[in-house]
Each structure stands twice: as C-alpha cells, then as structure tokens.
C-alpha cells in the first residue's frame, strides 16, 4: 500500500502523486456506495496493481474542502481584487475573507491594476492596505504587468497549497498564466454589458508553482453564506474575534448587547467602521436566510 496526494481528477480517474511519481488510480466501489467522492488535494492510501493503474483504498481526514472548485486540504487562498475594471470593493473583499476564514484557510490579498488608477483612488487603496495589514492580513498592491512582479510574490507559494479567488475580470486567470505560462488559460475578457468576465473553468488540477501547489481553477464562485451559522460569523473577523473576550456577556453577538467590547473598539477607531458595518450586514443576511431542512 502506498500513500500520496491526488493532484488531478479527470473522467473518473484520479492522478496520485507519491514521491516523484504520478499514478493513475480509480476509486473503490465502496466510496460510491457511501457517497464519498475523492477530491483533488486529498491524501490517500492506494494499491498499485500494475505500473500504470492503482486503486484508492482510503481517504485521509481533510482539514477543509471547497465545493467550487472541488478541492481539499488547502492552506491558503489568494484573493485577487482590482483597483479598477471592476472597481475595488471592500464589501466584496470582506465577503471573500469571511468565506475563506470560515473554511480555516489563510487569506492573502492581491490588489491588481494599481498602475491605471487616479492618484486619489491609489491613496484610498493604500489606506485600505494599511488597515487590512493592521488586522493581520498580507496585502500586495500590483500593477497590471503581472509577470514582472512575480519574483516578489514567489514566497507566497513556496510550501503552500493555494487557490486563487476573486470576482470575474480582476485578473485571476492572468495571474495563473503569469505563474505558469504553459497553462495558457483563456483570459476572460470583461464583458462590458454584464460588467463581469465569462467563466472559463476546466477540470481541477494542482500545478507546481515555486515549490508549492496551486489549483489551476479559480475558486469561490458562489458568495452566499449558505453554510455559515450566526455564531460562527464573529470568528471570521480576526479583529472582532480578538475583542470579543472582553465583552460583558459570554454569548455577545456585538449587535444590540450592552457593554460590548467590539462596539467600543469601533467607537474608538480600533476596528474600522466599514468592517463592523459589513459584519452587521452579513449578520442580517444570515439571519434572514431561509431555514435548511
């Protein structure tokens, strides 16, 4: 029995990397019966029948998994936002951050197209950069000439398993193409009528980039909080998570409760007002969600 990691899934076959060798495997029939699907990123035990084909016998416990793309055991998500076309949106960025934090994945923020904005927009985004860095996030401001900036980004990929996320048209595919020119992913042109790019996704594969692995398909296309419970939301904002221990009431939700340390921190400017506003908006959205049965 050998052990490895699934790095590609295609047409019912799973390609498992063990050491420097990649084995083509099928899943055991018992997985289908139990409704278990092996995912790209899974650590597995497999039996090799002949040099070319094996069977996956066991899937090891996952630290996390995504639905889109279907992938497991990520430890980093790079959220690509753009300064322009589409315009930067802190609300949208916070949506991505919450979804990624909820999956126990480390977020990193790249803001692209900084070379095509006015000086006032540049200043505004630099302010956001400082505030997100104070919260504890890594934030890189990038120009639209991505390949030239890759050397300063290499360290983000080394020893990490990364998915790239962000709304359409911000430069996710361009970033993937710059990281690995052999990918030649079709860059989605922004469709002006819709103000968003066209989907250009394929099967999922983990590719080697700078000593780490990167999913070759952008992730997080659905941005609803369908799996997030109200009690989890505060934990997805690091600065709220830090302050809530000082609230008077143990189950404080930081909305209407008295002696709430989070609201005090907002009043004192220790938590950015827009972050708290987004927390309240998302809280209301989860509250109004139709119950699941």
Short description:
It contains nine helices and 15 strands. It has 293 residues and is an alpha/beta fold. The radius of gyration is 21 Å and the shape is globular.
Structural features, described:
Its EC number is 3.6.1.-. Belongs to the TRAFAC class YlqF/YawG GTPase family. RsgA subfamily. This protein is α/β, with parallel strands linked by helices and 293 residues long. It has three domains: 2-61, OB fold (Dihydrolipoamide Acetyltransferase, E2P); 66-215, Rossmann fold, CATH 3.40.50.300; 230-287, Probable gtpase engc, domain 3 (Ribonucleotide Reductase Protein R1, domain 1, Orthogonal Bundle), CATH 1.10.40. It has helices at residues 29-33, 90-102, 119-135, 146-157, 172-179, 230-233, 238-243, 261-267, 273-287; strands at residues 2-10, 13-18, 21-27, 43-50, 53-59, 65-66, 71-72, 76-82, 106-112, 138-141, 161-165, 190-191, 196-197, 206-209, 212-215. A six-stranded mixed β-sheet has the order 10-9-8-11-15-14, with helices on both faces. A five-stranded mixed beta barrel has the order 1-2-3-5-4. It has a two-stranded antiparallel sheet with strand order 6-7. It is globular, with a radius of gyration of 21 Å. The two termini are 41 Å apart. Residues 188-201 have low confidence and may be disordered.
Secondary structure layout:
Layout: E1 2-10, E2 13-18, E3 21-27, H1 29-33, E4 43-50, E5 53-59, E6 65-66, E7 71-72, E8 76-82, H2 90-102, E9 106-112, H3 119-135, E10 138-141, H4 146-157, E11 161-165, H5 172-179, E12 190-191, E13 196-197, E14 206-209, E15 212-215, H6 230-233, H7 238-243, H8 261-267, H9 273-287
Parallel strand pairs: 3-5, 8-9, 8-11, 9-10, 11-15
Antiparallel strand pairs: 1-2, 1-4, 2-3, 4-5, 6-7, 12-13, 14-15
Helix pairs in contact: 2-9
Binding site for GTP: 112-115, 166-174
Enzyme class: hydrolase
Domain EngC GTPase: 72-221
């Amino acid at each position: 029995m050998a052990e490895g990691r699934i790095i590609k899934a295609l047409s019912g076959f799973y390609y498992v990397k063990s050491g420097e060798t990649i084995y083509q495997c099928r899943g055991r029939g018992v997985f289908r019966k139990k409704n278990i699907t092996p995912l790209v990123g899974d650590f597995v035990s497999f039996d090799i029948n002949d040099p070319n084909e094996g069977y996956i016998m066991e899937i090891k416990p996952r630290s996390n998994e995504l639905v889109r793309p279907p992938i497991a055991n990520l430890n980093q998500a790079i959220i690509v936002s753009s300064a322009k076309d589409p315009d930067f949106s802190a609300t949208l960025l916070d949506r991505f951050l919450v979804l990624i934090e909820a999956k126990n994945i480390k977020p990193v923020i790249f803001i692209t197209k900084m070379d095509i904005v006015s000086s006032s927009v540049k200043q505004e985004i630099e302010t956001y950069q400082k505030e997100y860095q104070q919260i504890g996030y890594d934030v890189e401001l990038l120009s639209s000439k991505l390949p030239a900036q890759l050397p300063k980004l290499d360290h983000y990929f080394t020893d990490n398993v990364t998915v790239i996320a962000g709304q359409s048209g911000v430069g996710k595919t361009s970033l993937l193409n710059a990281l690995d020119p052999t990918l030649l992913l079709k860059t989605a042109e922004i469709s002006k009528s819709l103000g968003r790019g066209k989907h250009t996704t394929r099967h999922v594969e983990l590719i080697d980039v700078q000593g780490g692995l990167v999913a070759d398909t952008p992730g997080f296309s659905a941005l609803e909080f369908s799996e997030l419970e109200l009690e989890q939301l505060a934990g997805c904002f690091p600065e709220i998570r830090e302050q809530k221990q000082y609230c008077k009431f143990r189950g404080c939700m930081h909305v209407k409760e008295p002696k709430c340390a989070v609201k005090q921190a907002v009043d004192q400017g220790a938590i950015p007002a827009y972050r708290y506003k987004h927390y309240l908006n998302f809280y209301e959205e989860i509250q109004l969600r139709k119950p699941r049965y």
